[in-house]
Amino acid sequence: MTLRNFAAGVPVMLICLIAQVVVVFWCVRYCARQTDRDTSRAGWQQAIRPLAVSMLAMMVANLLQIALWGVLFLALGEFKELYPAIYHSAVNFTSLGYGDVVMKEEWKLLGPLEAANGILMMSMTAAALTAILQYIIRWQADAIGAGHRRRRDSGE
């Protein structure tokens, strides 16, 4: 029974990991491209756009991973409809752990596997957003410093 759970869960975990890495890598590159412009004229909209787009992309990636786990639960016959399968998946993925829906003994180990996967994916999301935010803060600090130097050098 344990091997069946791992055989079903580990491939989904790997797909989630690859998807998250791809999205995080894209977000970091997107932010670098967006902030690799003339920092002296960076307004607040230009500063928050990379962070907002990254947050949205990573949230969508996490929601798709939750849906993937839900589809697995549906395919294994644990649920008859997609909505309760995705609901149960979201509870597992976020480690919320309501306990109002419990899987059959045969597939019970998939819950903790998804929870471990979800913790890792949410942590990766949080770490990437923190790094992006720090990068944007430095970018804005450089823009402010460049503006001060330009005014000082021009005699204003």
Report on this model:
The structure is a single chain. By secondary structure, the protein is an all-alpha fold. The chain has one domain. 79% of the residues lie in helices and 0% in strands. It has 4 helices and no strands.
Key phrases:
single chain, 156 residues, elongated
Protein topology:
Layout (H helix, E strand, L loop, with lengths): L1 H34 L8 H32 L6 H12 L16 H45 L2
> What gross morphology would you assign?
elongated
Order of helices and strands: HHHH
What is the number of beta strands? 0
Largest sheet: none
User: Which structural class best describes the helix and strand composition?
Assistant: mainly alpha
Summary, kept brief:
The chain is an all-alpha fold and 156 residues long.
